[in-house]
Batch of 3 targets.
Target 1
Amino acid sequence: MKISFILATLALSFGVYAAKLEVDVAGMTCGMCVSAITKELEATEKATGISVNLETKKARFEELKGKKISDSEIKAAIKKAGYEAVKISRKQ
Ligand SMILES: [Cu+2]
């Protein structure tokens, strides 16, 4: 158990596993909103596999390997696009 914990810690610090994030966004109404949010998330240079869904009002992406994106960075990016991140969930 101790060894697996150490390995997991090492894997995390070397960025082997990237966190998967899901953000609930308020204020999206059309495809322009989707592209604006995608663009701002791309501009953080910390997100990959960005997928913004107008139906579910969710933005999904993964952290780029070795990069940590904080909740405040996500909120700032969404706000810059003109929307609000109301909930951020992450899975390791
Ligand atoms: Cu729109």
Target 2
Amino acid sequence: MGPEPERRIETVMTRRRFLGALALGGTALGGVALGGAALGGCSDPPDFVRKAGRRIERTLDPLDPTTAEGRGPEPAAFKPPAPSLAAPTHPDTLPLECDVCVVGGGAAGFAAAVVAARMGAHTILVEESFMLGGNTTRGLVNLDRVTYGGDVSLVAGLFREVLLDLEERGEAVYPSAATQFSVPYDADGLRRTLLEKALKAGVDIRLGAEMFQAAAEERRIAALWALEQGRLLEIRAQLFVDCTGDGHLGHLAGNGYWLGDRTHGQIQGTTLIFYAAPVDFDRLVAYAEEEGSQNTVHQVIGLRSFMKQAIKDGLIGGTPQRGLLINRTTKPGVVSISGSESYIDHLSPGAAARIATELQEQDFQIHAALKERVPGFEASGIVRLAERPYLREGRRLIGYKQLTAEEILQAVKPADSVARGWYPIDLHVAYTGGPVHLGQLRSGDWYGIPYACLVARDVDNLLMAGRCISVTHEALGSTRISQVSFALGQAAGVAAALALREEMRPADLEAELVRSEVQKQGGLV
Ligand SMILES: Cc1cc2nc3c(=O)[nH]c(=O)nc-3n(C[C@H](O)[C@H](O)[C@H](O)COP(=O)(O)OP(=O)(O)OC[C@H]3O[C@@H](n4cnc5c(N)ncnc54)[C@H](O)[C@@H]3O)c2cc1C
């Protein structure tokens, strides 16, 4: 055995952290089975609140997902909290401490980390890939429906700041009435901007670090572990934010979750976007118009007859979408194409390779058919496949409220709304035979997303943002998009920083405090 490597602790001792350290009571985590018993119902305030001697003024009511009154029921999809897990140990372990640890550096995680850091919290961001942005960069996703309805813009907060930076560099077309739904942008430019902003905010960014374990006791996450270049990072924080999209952290820490629709237990399908070039967009638009597609300045939505015929002729196999979404990027002649679809559950063991194979095959087939049959594509090739498929739906962590499709379609604006959504309910599911729209809001209208949907029900020091918040399967068809994920991340970052300042658990924080801070930062609530 070699010598024991030096264990370095990077920490800043604040009064908060001091109180937090008292709360953890120097817990020895090594080898201890922790977590487990999380569960349901309302508990006593956490130690750090008790020790600070603060009176809890307001506590969110817990949500019981197994009763009709508990905004459900979703019995087929409900998963109970996970069993307890043992903490890993290894001599090559780097212990880190911070105020806020955000896991997942997609749109939501980027925003949560930047905002928490800007508000003074020592923040660590753990991201498994080598870039920030998640679907918006790794997935080459379109920034679709950024403005909704005429010239009503719902671009705000940190997302707006990011778009303005991109526009200044010529890497995005800022949305306006003229651009309607689509915002052409350069995914690599976005990647650079997000990293620059997070570094400037002082976030301790851990790229290439995959979180794989969390230990919770007495309804609190005590630590989580990530693998960074073969080394264990053991991260302790006052507060954690799950922005993994799939609710990995909440799941490992023992928070309950829902998965899939109530009847079939199915989650939404997965798509792999690709870029093709050179494409003569004007000729493509002319053809698409004749075909009856809905086009906007930078986007072709449809080509349904083309797809129907290509599938019938055996040019495209598998379970692709019925139509295509083709968006201009900011690079001349380069378009992004979304049309493949796989209904293999990406959370099932060994699914990734099967999904990748199926989607890649469809993408190559779709492109070959376009090249053969659609004007504008004759000289084109595939110039880029997205690094990762777009995982539309994973675990939806149970919070203190569950947002429903009815509330979305009725454009409900709750008093504790901390972010706005407006996208139609766009469900990509096999049980309807493919993508369906369950409805959309009136032009220019919006719905509010309650703060209680961001607060984990079973783990007191956990917030969530992005795709894994507490919503129904159908509601996720609307809340899952990029702009909303940025806004939810911003709200979660604000809530984390305020909970630390107020020395409260997030469940006891007045939503009004979060709302007014988000507004102060230019966000819409
Ligand atoms: C085909 C397609 C169409 C879409 N259409 C639109 C659209 O038109 N308009 C729109 O606005 N949005 C659209 N979206 C959706 C949107 O891009 C995403 O849903 C949104 O960005 C989700 O953000 P997120 O931060 O919650 O999750 P993600 O982007 O999934 O980010 C999660 C991050 O967590 C990281 N992570 C996960 N697990 C771990 C772990 N254990 N350890 C460390 N890191 C981890 C991942 O690497 C990833 O970076 C579309 C996406 C696709 C691909």
Target 3
Amino acid sequence: MQKLETFPPSRRDYHREYMRKRRADPNFVRWAEKHPEVRKEIANRSYHKHKDDSGAKERRSRSQAKSRAKVKMEVFIHYGGDPPKCANCETDDVDVLTIDHIDGNGHQHRKEIGNKLGYLFYRWLRQNNFPPGYRVLCRNCNWLHYIGRI
Ligand SMILES: [Zn+2]
């Protein structure tokens, strides 16, 4: 199928309108409900057609990065305030902040939850409604905590 952007503006609008009407058409909806496998096939074909399209890939990875950054910020704000700060030295550079397990039993705990690192750990915290027992520390203070100086 021809790319939407390559249509002259007038035809682009026409095409967009046509697709909108088609999706709203009860006949189409009825047909689509009856034939989930055909719709799957269409979606599948479109996926394979576009998966190597670097533009789409880039857009996809950019939106994934965005949603990861969002999850990370939510977790840091929950445990470290808004804007998030290190609980010890108050550094607020998000790039050096980490989530610290207050009991210091991070290794054991991570084993329990399946050794989730980085993003997966942030996502786990959010999925579990931000369980207590964590705080935000910067990497320096995290290390000092680890060697028992704080
Ligand atoms: Zn610190």
